[in-house]
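Thread: "does anyone have the structure for this chain?"

Original post by V.I.:
We have the sequence but no experimental structure in hand. Need at least a predicted one for the grant figures.
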Amino acid sequence: MRTSAEWLRLLKQADIPSAPLNSVDDIIDDPHLAECGFFRMTEHPTEGSLRMMTTPLAWSDAPPHELRPAPRLGEHSVEILREAGYGEAEITAMIACRVTTVPMA
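Reply from O.Q.:
Generated one for you, tokens below.
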């Protein structure tokens, strides 16, 4: 059985385009991604410190905005329901019946 490194060497010698299939650990530990700052730490309101990927693109005149953590379950439910035209009583009833939820404090 050959290792990935052996296969990559043989494929390169045969002029066959190839690349390794990386695991999550391979990517997190990748020296190039660490050097270019691809992963950044951010504070999530309920989950603590999280490692997040940055955008892989960069423009000198329009740098990407800061990353935000993923929303908590139900974080935008009320806002979206209001935008969809539901009234406060309907939204309260949906939360009470567990049709939707709001984040725990």
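V.I.: this helps a lot. Helices lie at 4-13, 24-28, 31-35, 77-83, 88-96.
O.Q.: and The first helix runs from residue 4 to 13.
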